[in-house]
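Need tokens for this chain, all 123 residues.
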Amino acid sequence: MKYGFERQSPQTQQILLPWGGAIARVDDHATPLTGRHAHWVTHPFAMWEMHEDAEPNIEWAKAFRRDIAGFTNGGTYLNFIGQEGEARIRAAYGDEKYARLQRVKAEWDPTNIFQGDQNIRPA
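Here are the structure tokens for all 123 residues:
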């Protein structure tokens, strides 16, 4: 609740989505998605209009993530991240699944033509 009251912009949202259910009934190794046992997915969604408002809004989101980290499984839902680096992408899949995806990428896209924010580099 603290972060709801301390938002830096009226446009900022805190998204909290129920997880589990049908998602949790799929075998963890059936798809690259991991963290199927989680009950909730949360996402601090900081938005602002003016360039000078960037720093306090970004810090708000980072502080939220730091404070909630002890209550999470450490995973990442890729629809909720931007260019946050390979470690966050690996967190979405876990090391074993990420390595598997790298092998697939090496076979089907060895020159890494198809890439984006959540790019998996070929093995």
